[in-house]
Amino acid sequence: AYNILELAVGAYSGEDRQKVIEIDTALIENIIQKKALLYDKNGEEHFNLISALHKSMRDSDPDAAVYWTVRMLESGEDPLYIIRRMVRFASEDIGLADPNALQVAISAKQSFEFIGPPEGYLAIIEAVIYLALAPKSNSLYTTYKKVKSDVEEFGSLPVPYHIRNAPTRLMKDIGYGKGYKYAHDYNDAVVDQAHLPEKLLARKYYSPADRGFEKELINRLKAINILKKKQK
């Protein structure tokens, strides 16, 4: 109650000191709303807001994404906290479907730090809209999770001999680098040789989405596989 009274007095601090402040229900509700907007930076609502922004961008809703961004900025949220989430989003939810997305997010940080608030907020808004409208893919995230799972399950599997570093004569004598095929000696710089540990030779970790730039990567992978088959 004391905090609300203090805020009520503060709200009229620039007006006539002799003016009688009438504290009614409407004033209290207005103060509570402002208090929540300005001070709830570490509670549940803090995390609800950043979650709302992330999901709005993921669902390609630029209007909602901008709304939640401005809500946080006007609440006094650290702009760099928002930008860090945008950088994460660019890799996690867009990835190679639009490789420029990550650079756009990084550029927003650089622009904001260079200009500062409030004008610098526009760089953040620009990036938020770009990310919201970019084609989406979580292929980088799923690729990382699959590889991480194998690393945890199989531990430190040995590097195949033919792709080991062989800086000394002794290493070469025991087979390091033996049989390695130098890609640039082959057509299109593509060579058919194993690079994964033996236990993981059948693994296919990266599976691009059929959206955005990853459509081109699908075709590129198909072309690489055709070239490799011709070398068998």
TrEMBL record:
Gene Ontology terms, MF aspect: ATP binding; DNA binding; enzyme activator activity; single-stranded DNA helicase activity
Keywords for the protein's UniProt record, in alphabetical order: ATP-binding, Nucleotide-binding
Keyword ATP-binding: yes
Domain AAA C-terminal as annotated: residue spans: 1-58
GO terms under biological process: DNA synthesis involved in DNA repair; DNA-templated DNA replication
Domain MgsA AAA+ ATPase C-terminal as annotated: residue spans: 60-224
Protein's recorded name: MgsA AAA+ ATPase C-terminal domain-containing protein
Organism of derivation: marine sediment metagenome
